[in-house]
Amino acid sequence: xxxDEKVPVTEVSEAFPFPERSRLLEGVRAYGLIMAMWVRSTxxxxxSFAMTLFGDFAVTAFDFAxxxxxxxxxxxxxxxxxxxxxxxxxxxxxxxxxCDLLLGSMDRVGRRVRDGTLDTLLVRPVPVLAQVAADRFAxxxxxxxxxxxxxxxxxxxxxxxxxxxxxxxMLPMMVVSGAAIFGAIFVAGAAFQFVAQDASEVQNSxxxxxxxxxxxxxxxxxxxLVRGVTFVVPLAFVSWLPALYVLDREYPVDLPQWVxxxxxxxxVACWALAGLAWRTGLRAYRSTGS
Amino acid sequence: xxxxAVVAGGAFRRYATYRxxxxxxxxxxxxxxxxxxxxxxxxxxxRPQLGGYDTSQALTYVWxxxxxLMACAMMGGGFEDELAERIRTGDxxxxxxxxxxxxxxWLAGDLGRAAFHLLGRGVVPMFLGALAFDLALxxxxxxxxxxxxxxxxxxxxxxxxxxxVAMSAFWLMxxxxxxxIVSLAGLFFSGMLLPLNLFPGLLGEVARALPWSxxxxxxxxxxxxxxxxxxxxxxxxxxxxxxxxxxxxxRLLQTAATRRVVVQGG
Lengths: 290, 266
Known about the structure:
With 290 residues, chain A is an all-alpha fold. Chain A has 14 helices and no strands. The A-B interface holds A 45, 47-52, 54-56, 58-59, 62-63, 65-66, 69-70, 72-74, 76-78, 196-202, 204-205, 209, 212-213, 216, 219-222, 225 and B 18-21, 23-25, 27-28, 31-32, 34-36, 38-39, 41-43, 46-47, 50, 172-178, 180-181, 183-184, 187-188, 193-194, 198-200.
């Protein structure tokens, strides 16, 4: 009986008439089309869009304002000065912002499973992941990226770093791999929602919680927590490890220096795992049937 | 009155239905509690007695924030998106000719929701926080009822603000923007990100006088025993004053909206 119910899913994915490579392209193209549709729909209510754009800018601005307020009372937090923390903050906020813009609606999978609208996505000849990722694409999330970039700019101007070509190259590397690591968490979180439909908030702990954590220096957290986000959920590779190399700082957990260059590999590994989780989740999906 | 009690009970049960979501929320509250707690420890290590709190009071403040985040709806949510949607679709017309008071109906529902969130989302994070950190729990038993009264007033103030936001949908049609801005202001000016007594100078004075301070700063200070005797009465008067003013403003806006605005839909 269970095998019967799964048939439509396997049929769609196996009977898909494109080889693997062009399927990726097809997915990207579909993503673009759905995204464009949502952008047009957002623009129907311009006043509201302007407010939400400003809101997304401000939500992170308040985060940084909190750090600024803390620094009206202290000169250093966990041994880190304001520009150093601003670098951590800017990198983490920009990487997360980029990921949030591209995949931020993935926490709606649970809702789609609950109300049965995921079925619609399954019968369309477009990869489900692309449809889910582009669902309710929110251009307002540019506000968050802008704010992150501004803080990053402030950090780079006010920090006194002995720049080498390698360190310069590491900045874009950190933003891109960081966004990819966060993205893998979004996808894995979405896959988890096939199992626990109402639990979409759990992933907030790792995404929003993760970016909040990374905005502060690792020295202030308990060692076990730092180990956890290094070895279990590899958030430390988003900004801490590479950024501490740029800042010439010691990481509280003893690790060799070349670890700072691993983020791209970690991102690829995370995506492989997330992809596996997503496929497993999608195969396990059973429609509510109503 | 009985009707509103039924509405409140219904709302309580409605939120209580989603058990997985509640567990997920508790998990998230706890994770955030830990992250913020460590940042506060670093801050208070550098400056003991900052803002008149010692370290364990500051940590208590963190976990109170996590416990009240949903109950006082500091980031918004709860009912205003639903009400705004009814305004956008025109369903509000049906609500308006029901023989109940629109504002009280939603207030009753929101109180039911808050009661559930205080129990479902508040107790466990607070308990886990108390296990992991040395918290300053009230010395006197009387602090507990005093605290809950303050939380109740905080929920009413929060409701009154969110009702105003929902009413804006009569003019803006899409309430998302206004909701977003109010939710931000709520996060910052309630003291969720940093206690308001750490805000410097004029910003601090303004922030402490704004209605949002009723959502967390005032209840937390009652819990920490900062308001006793006449101070407690003043704190209640502050919260109650904002509640009355904001509820009246909501009523005024509602009257204006129903008179002037043409309801959408056919």
